[in-house]
Write a structure and sequence with these properties.
By secondary structure, the protein is mainly α. It contains 6 helices and no strands. The chain binds fe (ii) ion (2 copies). One fe (ii) ion (FE2) binds next to helix 1, helix 2 and helix 4.
Length: 191
């Protein structure tokens, strides 16, 4: 049986993966053409990652889903401890990436490689994190959680949905998303 919580998590993973790939494509294109990046676009894309995946998606997993799994499991779930630690690490890693972007913008081309490498590490880290959740945690949730658990989780996961999963953004995000959609390359945008 499929549950709204699982669909929201999978859709948001797909949106984050698409955003990460779009930034990588842009960086490769800027490097190939020896171009100065559109820094406002890169800042908007990193802001999205901080605003949605970092501040909404990961906290919901750590505060709502993982505690229920721990309650239902008879054995300790070390994988959840590892994922919780990664959620905390993600918060300062995105700060580090944003700082590296600022240095690239202010100092110039000598900081391009440092930023590209910092962003690539962030991408590798999150793709591996999401893979672990999809291959280990979501199947475990399907096995262990009760209907009463899902009845509590589903409405929470259906709140504050990521606009990149096909839901209209709140008005305050209109400028952010139109900038990203108009200027970023596929799979996220039309640029
Ligand atoms: Fe996560
Ligand atoms: Fe996740």
């Amino acid at each position: 049986m499929s549950h709204a919580t699982l669909k929201v998590i999978r859709d948001e993973h797909a949106a984050l993966a698409a955003m990460l790939r779009s930034v990588l494509l842009l960086l490769a294109q800027y490097r190939r053409r020896a171009e100065t990046p559109d820094f406002a676009l890169l800042r908007a894309m990193l802001f999205y990652i901080d605003e949605f995946p970092e501040r909404q998606h990961h906290p919901k997993e750590s505060t709502l889903l993982f505690p229920k799994l721990r309650l239902r499991s008879e054995e300790p779930l070390g994988v959840l401890d590892k994922l919780d630690r990664e959620h905390e690490q993600g918060e300062w890693q995105i700060r580090y990436v944003e700082r590296a972007l600022l240095a690239f913008e202010i100092v110039g081309d000598s900081r391009r490689t440092t930023f590209e490498e910092a962003f690539q590490r962030y991408v590798d880290f999150y793709l591996a994190h999401m893979r672990t959740e999809e291959l280990e945690v979501l199947p475990l949730a399907e096995k262990l959680l009760t209907q009463a658990d899902w009845d509590e989780l589903d409405p929470e996961f259906l709140l504050n949905r990521d606009p990149l999963t096909g839901h209209a953004p709140k008005e305050e995000y209109n400028a952010l998303f139109s900038r990203i959609v108009c200027l970023a390359p596929a799979p996220i945008g039309l640029g």
